[in-house]
Write a structure and sequence with these properties.
Elements lengths: L2 E5 L2 E4 L4 E8 L6 E8 L6 E6 L6 E3 L7 E6 L4 E6 L8 E9 L14 E2 L3 E6 L1
Parallel strand pairs: 2-11
Antiparallel strand pairs: 1-3, 3-8, 4-5, 4-9, 5-6, 7-8, 9-10, 9-11
């Protein structure tokens, strides 16, 4: 069983950058694919980015391609989301999620994930 704790959220001006971290506890991290999702007030949770456990393949929502980068450090059991050129519409609570052994485009679907962090707020001012 993996437990997740996000950090790195905050308030930033449009055009700025933030790096979110998600630290995992438990032994299974290297076998887990990891995803980032976000939820803005009054909106449904939406996919942001994911990274596969097996080959490190990455997937991005169209809205963040070219601006966000997901990466993982298995030695530190941590996944990162580097967010550049932030826009006010990126404002949301960002959640880290983990799923054991799943790969491919299934990782864009939040139903696939078994474990979620508590979320971290990202606010982008205009």
């Amino acid at each position: 069983q993996v437990q997740l704790v996000e950090s790195g959220g905050g308030l930033v001006q449009a055009g700025g950058s933030l790096r979110l971290s998600c630290a995992a506890s438990g032994r299974a991290f290297s076998s887990c694919s990891m995803g980032w999702f976000r939820q803005a007030p009054g909106k449904e949770r939406e996919f942001v980015a994911a990274i596969s456990w097996r080959y490190g393949s990455t997937y991005y929502a169209d809205s963040v391609k070219g601006r966000f980068t997901i990466s993982r450090d298995n030695a530190k059991s941590t996944v990162y989301l580097q967010m550049n050129s932030l826009k006010p519409e990126d404002t949301a609570v960002y959640y880290c999620a983990a799923v054991l052994g799943v790969a491919g485009t299934r990782l864009t679907n939040h139903f696939e994930y078994a474990t979620w962090g508590q979320g971290t707020q990202v606010t982008v001012s205009s």
